[in-house]
Write a structure and sequence with these properties.
Elements: H1 2-24, H2 26-37, E1 48-53, H3 56-71, E2 76-81, H4 84-87, E3 96-100, H5 106-116, E4 120-124, H6 130-138, E5 143-148, H7 162-168, E6 173-176, H8 179-187, E7 193-195, H9 199-207, H10 215-222, E8 226-233, H11 235-243, E9 250-256, H12 261-270, E10 274-276, E11 288-290, H13 297-300, E12 306-309, H14 321-324, E13 330-332, H15 340-347, E14 351-353, H16 357-368, H17 371-384, H18 389-401
Helix pairs in contact: 1-2, 3-9, 3-18, 5-6, 6-7, 11-12
């Protein structure tokens, strides 16, 4: 009965809401126009491996596994997206095609499966499209969840999610990020849950660290005993570190999330001895450097000793894995419950949560001691959490061959 009402909603109501949304949201408009323009029949291939990713984050997460299918030469990876953020940043190649996934109605699911004829259906993280999962089972298509993530308050634990649980339990395998997710899966009587880890770690390590020489950053950091990188910062993080009493010899590099002039001026007012990257003159005596340019943050981490990552005093924590690839221990605010890597890093002693100025001072003092020890610990932690993507690929290939 629940599936009946859900399917009616996705067939009659959801399209109307999507059309109305396109009138007020440029993002939804891009999706609607993309749906109208695409031709699913153009994806004909006798070895389509279908990944569904909601947006760019899931796409980046799945790339290590996608690349193995592309590399084998026999497969064509077909990636569906809900959000333009993923679709627009996915570059098609001979072995990779993309499309916008139509809404989750029975009719759409049947149409897409008939057009693509996938050999495998792979969902990423927590993309649970009920009618597409049903159609995969009805079509006898092997189905997998990769880097899956379940939480205590997950909708799957609700009474109305029984149809979703029923079909997820029939997947060939649920490759899950952490022990908590496996425990929840088992509490729902799933017998297909496998602890595999977070494939984003593979992704950041595969990308490697960028060591890019920058004359200004080298000059600014050359006189510092240690450097704190304030990455993707919001006002709360900036205010905290401005109030904190930092150990002598420490310099700060701030890479704001928002580069609008008003925000930059707010940061300048917080730090009397700050200077903008674009105004820096070699030999400056400033203690705070503000990166008012785009695209610098990733390689700036090579000049740091620790990172204070923004977002966790607001909607959610920004990327902590990127600075960790450079061996930097990380500090962040309290809103990180949706990011299991943050809790795991805290449990290993290479990350600290802070709520107040005094907690920030304590965390900085902690990581200031024996920095080379912390750097090796961070890198060892990342290496220990690499996902066995080759093994995952081999298990999926078996289902195709069978």
């Amino acid at each position: 009965m629940l599936r009946f009402f859900y399917s009616k909603f996705t067939f009659f109501v959801a399209p109307l809401l999507q059309s109305l949304g396109a009138k007020i949201s440029s993002k939804i408009k891009k999706r609607v126009l993309g749906l109208k323009a695409q031709n699913l029949d153009s994806f004909s291939h006798d070895q389509n491996i279908w990944f569904h990713c909601s947006s760019l984050g899931e796409f980046e997460m799945a790339k290590p596994l996608m690349n193995l299918f592309i590399k084998d030469g026999a497969s064509q990876v077909v990636v569906s997206f809900f959000s333009p953020s993923g679709y627009e940043n996915c570059n098609e190649t001979e072995g990779l095609k993309k499309f916008y996934l139509p809404l989750d109605s029975k009719q759409n699911a049947l149409r897409v499966f008939k057009a693509i004829k996938p050999k495998v259906f792979i969902l990423v993280k927590y993309e649970f499209w009920l009618n597409y999962m049903v159609q995969a089972q009805n079509s006898g298509v092997p189905s997998f969840l990769i880097s899956g993530l379940f939480r205590d308050n997950h909708f799957l634990s609700k009474y109305y999610a029984k149809p979703w649980r029923s079909y997820l339990s029939q997947f060939n395998a649920l490759y899950l990020q952490n022990k908590k997710s496996v425990q929840l899966a088992e509490s729902w009587s799933f017998s297909n849950a496998i602890l595999s880890g977070d494939m984003r770690i593979n992704r950041v390590l595969n990308n490697g660290t960028i060591f890019k020489k920058d004359e200004i950053l080298e000059d600014f950091t050359s006189s510092a005993e240690q450097v704190i990188i304030l990455g993707s910062s919001w006002p709360k993080e900036e205010q905290l570190i401005a109030k904190a009493k930092l150990p002598s010899g420490i310099k700060v590099i701030i890479a704001p999330h928002d580069l609008n002039p008003e925000h930059i001026n707010l940061i300048k007012n917080l730090f009397s001895k700050s200077i903008l990257y674009t105004e820096y003159v070699l030999g400056e005596s400033s203690n705070v450097l503000i990166l008012n340019t785009i695209g610098m943050l990733k390689f700036t981490y090579q000049y740091g000793n620790m990172a204070f990552i923004g977002g966790a005093f607001g909607k959610g924590l920004h990327n902590i894995l990127e600075p960790m690839t450079y061996g930097l221990p990380v500090i962040f605010g309290p809103n990180h419950t949706k990011f299991p890597e943050a809790l795991a890093a805290m449990e290993s002693g290479i990350a600290k949560q802070v709520n107040t100025k005094s907690e920030l001072e304590t965390a900085i003092n902690y990581f200031q001691n024996v920095p080379y020890k912390h750097k090796s610990e961070v890198k060892a932690w990342l290496q220990s959490r690499i996902v066995d993507v080759d093994g995952m690929y081999a298990e999926i290939i078996k289902t195709i061959d069978n």
